[in-house]
Peptide/nickel transport system substrate-binding protein (Halolamina salifodinae), 593 residues
Amino acid sequence: MNRAASKPSRRSVLAALGSAAVVAGSGCLRRARNLTGWESSQPISLRIKTLPTDADPYALALARRVAAWFRKAGIDVDVLPMAEQELLRECLLRTEFDMFVMRLPERFRDPDALRTLLHSRFADAPGWQNPFGYANLEVDEALDRQRTTDGQDRWEALASIQRTIARTQPFTLLTVPDDVRAARTDAHPNWQEVELRSPLGYLRLERPQDAEEPSTLRVVGTDRRGTTNLNPLSVEFRRSGVLTGLLYDPLTREIDGETTPWLASSVSLSAESPPTAQVELREDVDWHDGEPVTAADVAFTYDLLADTSLSDDDSSVGVPSPQFRSRSTLVADAEAVEERRVEFTFEDADPSVAARALTVPILPEHVWRERTDDAAIGGISLGGVTEALVTNNIPPVGSGPFEFVRNSPRERLVLRRTEDHFSTREGTGLPDWVGRAAIDELSISVVGSGVTAVETVVDGDADVTGTAVGAETVPRIGRATGTELLVERSDRPYVLGYNTREPHLDNPRVRNTLARLVDEPFLGDDVLDGYAHAAVGPLHETDWYPNDLMWRDENPVVPFFGEEGTLDVSAAREAFREAGYQYEDGTLVGGGP
């Protein structure tokens, strides 16, 4: 079946099902199936793709537990662990999946980022741009509306979005883990005060009083990708933005809850519609190769993010960068009017939303302009992909507070503090701690598992585990002399993502029922040893979250069929029957095209 040809019809159906039709009786569904010849019984067979244990401490265990509940409900499900790079390519680039278990990137804690995650216009785009193929016109309209409003009007739009996705379930939020790390108590005195999931956390570390000069922070982790690829635009190589955030400067950063000029010395944002901005760059800022950072680099960056082929042909489709697209699409034009001044014109958006666009990494034009040709393997064009999206970008040339020294692929990466970075100067308007970073060099080594990473710290061969480790390592960390347990509330939930382009999973009532087969608090206790909490959506614990979606004793929208991890099989099967499905010899069957 031609998926593209079916999209308008499917989108209309989903929009209707997103409201009253979600609770329609099974008789209507059966009559519709009769009309379309959809009565032949076929076993429902699904596959969950996820990461192996050595790449993620919890993903595989979560997927297997979910699969066990699905099997009890009569669904034929298998779990396929696969290497992280291949998983991301299949699920985020090729959409070759039924379901996946992964962690959402932290950027989806920003309410406007939900637009690229869920808007139907991004259903065929690569990366974390609606990988579910979700299409709901009510959600589309509210996602557009929240960009152009503020205050209570924006809150109401976002509340409507969250209620609809909680009901129609393009993904099921499984659990929100705590990030567990181990650190040497003699390395830095303020571990508990910093966030190591943020590049600013590394700048905030304090130097021990008896530390010798220079200071090297030895980080051990399990993510090998940063040792082989430092491309901030690469979808399948970016689990987080910590390393690229140290190498590249944005115009502004959020510091202590406030949007603060960073590479920019000042930002003047208008209140008109659409908004505009005058951005002045700091003086005497160089790229790591010695070339000056100019307004032309800034304008080039936004052109590149909008179309990595930089095509001048108006008829060209263009190749936008999947990373940062929710922010770059806010910009209508960025023009260098002087050597250090850039004028921005934004799309129709509230100024508070438009300001998000100024947080992307700024790239050097003299390096990246040569990466705009079509990418090819063995002389064969990949089509719709440019060199900018696939280059490993080693050595990287940024302007950030740290610069590249050397790497051993899959083993080690070394960065050092950039000499005379503007953050170390007087009168920057930045907090004092930014300029007196305790780290002169950052040495990152890679091991095979979280357990090995913890032992490396315990043995004194590393100062901290850079990637989060599994909760099973907590007793070892607690018993070890000179080792400190670090626990942070994570902003990256595990989700069960559904490919709504596929038969059965294109039905929101089916996804709603599947969500009711999952006991989220049980997953947090059973798989993550209690180092997690349950939530309904990615904006939980923010000011944008409606009270009726707060988790109390159970999920307020899709409560579990059962209790304490034990599925009420009869209730689950009855729900599928009410949705128009049948059982044959205990196996769930449904029609197919």
